[in-house]
């Protein structure tokens, strides 16, 4: 495929500049702002992964989406908008979704100088990506496998029918080949791995695979109980810490590692947790992304128009684009009791507090707003 050219003269995405991270507006403006909107553009998917965070919402037939010009009018109201994310399901499974929703959103974002990300399992033919990929900033994929055998077990765990191994092997090989081809063409491919009891011992191997595919970034997130994953075994904090350190010790220094929804904080009473925080903030080419959900991002369902704080299943929709302005919904969320409970801030430690699911899982007895960082990562 042809080489993807530079989008604009915008600041490039690097470990020093992650436009999805709410840290920047919080530290610069003294408050959170709505800078990111995520669209759920489809509920179709050709896979049924065991860890899927939206699995029970997946359908066999697509509904009728809200016209894209109506979505764009809502985005026009957000002067602070910096990023747009597109997710599903598998966003490019339905060519009509690509033509009528995804491509117009990407072109709109490009016209405003807004950064874009699309989440895909990358198992469709390469030609399905080639006619719109040049307008995209980040192609986000999942990689939780040692090879096609793992892929077969994981991605069809909730399939209603038995899927032959040969089919899974073909899809796995296509995903790897696509990642290599797109990376070689200059696409920013970011591969995400979840830390689970299965992946924990094999993360360094998966990291090497990701590096071999040419991916610019490896995102690492602990597994949390949501949707299909709600009954999966979770690791203890000690196990998570050991896994993270093992990966950092064996990483490819040329691959950016981004840790998200990290369950360790600079206000911890445990010195080993504070040491981990310090190391991750001092190591080159490693970043800790602060939780965007509800700090700078809202999610819009393009079928219902519901506006939610992404990934928080226990917080009901906060509004609907048919009746509400996005900025009003975001401000409504900032005054919500759940937000007020978790939106703490320690600038010297570069910390904006916990993801809500993390706090509920591991720190249910903590009041984060009454705690203070026991360290500093800021150079004086």
UniProtKB/TrEMBL annotation:
Ranges where the Radical SAM core domain occurs: 29-258
Keywords in UniProt for this one? 4Fe-4S, Iron, Iron-sulfur, Metal-binding, S-adenosyl-L-methionine
The molecular function GO annotations come to: 4 iron, 4 sulfur cluster binding; catalytic activity; metal ion binding
Q: Which Gene3D superfamilies match?
A: Aldolase class I (3.20.20.70)
Q: Which domain of life is it from?
A: Bacteria
Protein name per UniProt? Radical SAM core domain-containing protein
* Organism of derivation: Polycladomyces abyssicola
Tell me what gene encodes this: yfkA
């Amino acid at each position: 495929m042809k080489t993807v050219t530079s989008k604009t003269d915008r600041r490039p995405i690097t470990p020093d500049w992650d436009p999805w991270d709410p840290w920047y507006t919080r530290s610069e403006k003294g408050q959170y702002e709505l800078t990111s909107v995520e669209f759920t553009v489809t509920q179709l998917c050709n896979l049924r992964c065991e860890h899927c965070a939206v699995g029970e919402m997946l359908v066999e037939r697509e509904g009728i989406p809200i016209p894209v010009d109506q979505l764009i009018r809502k985005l026009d109201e957000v002067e602070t908008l910096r990023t747009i994310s597109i997710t599903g399901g598998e966003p490019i499974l339905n060519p009509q979704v690509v033509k009528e929703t995804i491509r117009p959103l990407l072109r709109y974002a490009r016209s405003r100088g807004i950064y874009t990300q699309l989440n895909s399992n990358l198992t469709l033919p390469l030609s399905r990506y080639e006619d719109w990929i040049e307008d995209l900033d980040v192609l986000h994929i999942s990689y939780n496998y040692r090879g096609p055998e793992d892929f077969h077990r994981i991605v069809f765990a909730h399939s209603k029918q038995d899927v032959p191994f040969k089919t899974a092997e073909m899809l796995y090989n296509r995903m790897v080949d696509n990642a290599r081809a797109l990376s070689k063409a200059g696409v920013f491919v970011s591969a995400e791995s979840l830390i689970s009891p299965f992946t924990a011992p094999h993360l360094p191997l998966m990291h090497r695979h990701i590096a071999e595919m040419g991916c610019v970034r490896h995102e690492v997130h602990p597994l949390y109980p949501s949707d299909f994953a709600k009954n999966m075994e979770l690791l203890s904090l000690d196990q998570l810490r050991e896994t993270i350190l093992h990966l950092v010790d064996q990483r490819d220094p040329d691959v950016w590692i981004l840790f998200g929804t990290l369950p360790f904080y600079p206000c911890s009473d445990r010195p080993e947790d504070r040491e981990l925080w310090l190391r991750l903030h001092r190591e080159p080419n490693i970043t800790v992304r602060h939780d965007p959900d509800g700090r700078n991002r809202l999610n819009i369902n393009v079928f219902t128009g519901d506006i939610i704080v992404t990934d928080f299943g226990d917080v009901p929709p906060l509004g609907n684009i048919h009746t509400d302005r996005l900025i009003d919904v975001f401000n409504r969320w900032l005054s919500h009791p759940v937000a007020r409970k978790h939106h703490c801030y320690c600038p010297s430690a570069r910390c904006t507090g916990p993801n809500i699911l993390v706090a509920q899982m591991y720190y249910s007895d903590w009041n984060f707003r009454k705690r203070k960082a026991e360290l500093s990562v800021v150079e004086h």
